[in-house]
Amino acid sequence: QILVEQKRYQEALPRLEETLTLLEELHFNSDMAIVLNDLGVCESKLGNIQKAIEYYERSLSIGESLSLTHYNTSFYQNLSDLYEKQKKQ
């Protein structure tokens, strides 16, 4: 997440993917939702819109199932922004 905050998206991707794999193995679903959102941010910033949408939708699905209301707002906003961006292209 530090790399994401520093806008080092290309560097962040492999580390986030590794983290996601570990979280999936441990069934840490709420943390998975956050990492999926971060993956969506990275892919979006790198211009990979469809991949970003997939990550955002997965994070939102987990967020809704676990009632992560604090995070869901961010997940919805990120997905909405991306759909808007895709629409303009």
List keywords for this structure.
single chain, 0% strand, mainly alpha, 89 residues
Please tell me about this protein's structure.
The N and C termini lie far apart (about 30 Å). The protein contains 5 helices and no strands. It is mostly helical and about 90 residues long. The radius of gyration is 12 Å and the shape is globular. The mean pLDDT is about 90.
Break the fold down into its secondary structure elements and pairings:
Elements (H helix, E strand, L loop, with lengths): L1 H4 L3 H18 L2 H17 L3 H17 L3 H20 L1
Measured by DSSP, the beta-strand proportion falls in: under 5%
N→C terminal distance: 28 Å
Helix content: over 70%
The stretches of 5 or more residues where confidence is low (pLDDT under 50) are none
Secondary structure category: mainly alpha
Q: What shape does the CA trace take?
A: globular
Instruction: Profile the largest sheet.
Output: none
Number of strands: 0
Rg calc: 12 Å
Overall pLDDT confidence: 89
**N-to-C series of helices and strands:** HHHHH
Brief account:
By secondary structure, this protein is mainly alpha-helical. It has helices at 2-5, 9-26, 29-45, 49-65, 69-88.
